[in-house]
Amino acid sequence: MDLIQLKIKKDASVIKYVKIIREFEGSMSMGDIKRKIENGDFAVEFDLEEYDVLDDLNGIDRKQGFRRMLDSLLNAGARLEIYHDGEPSSLEFLDNWLESLEITRRQVEEDMNREAEAGL
């Protein structure tokens, strides 16, 4: 499991941050998100290894959605603390990890296509 966790420094714009997180993670209540931010807890946790076949079939890339959420939070003025499996990390680490996952995904897809064509 590769868990990315976010803490958001509490400030006057907490409600903006809650709305942005809620757009990405609809299963969390606004009250829970707000409480987590105010208490200095992890406001969001996302497993980079998460895979949902329905998302895949529908062309939904949750990893990129998570990254867009981070951009939205940063653009809204949020001061983020990023953790990887509970250890302090950075946005650069996350971007590099996402890039490596994408490269691996493309390579696997190319290999599968090559094997399928060879079998015909």
Overview of the molecule:
The protein is α+β, with helices and mostly antiparallel strands and 120 residues long. It has a single domain, classed as Ribosomal Protein L30, Chain: A (2-Layer Sandwich). It contains 5 helices and 4 strands, in the order E-H-H-E-H-H-E-E-H. The protein has helices at 14-24, 30-39, 53-57, 62-75, 91-119, and strands spanning 3-8, 44-47, 80-84, 87-88. Strand 3 and strand 4 form a beta hairpin. It is elongated, with a radius of gyration of 17 Å. The mean pLDDT is 91.
Radius of gyration: 17 Å
- Overall residue-averaged pLDDT value: 91
**Which sequence of SSEs, written as H and E, runs from N to C?**
EHHEHHEEH
Number of strands: 4
Q: Find the CATH topology.
A: Ribosomal Protein L30, Chain: A
| Percentage beta strand | 5-15%
In the predicted model, the low-confidence regions spanning at least 5 consecutive residues are none
Helix content: 55-70%
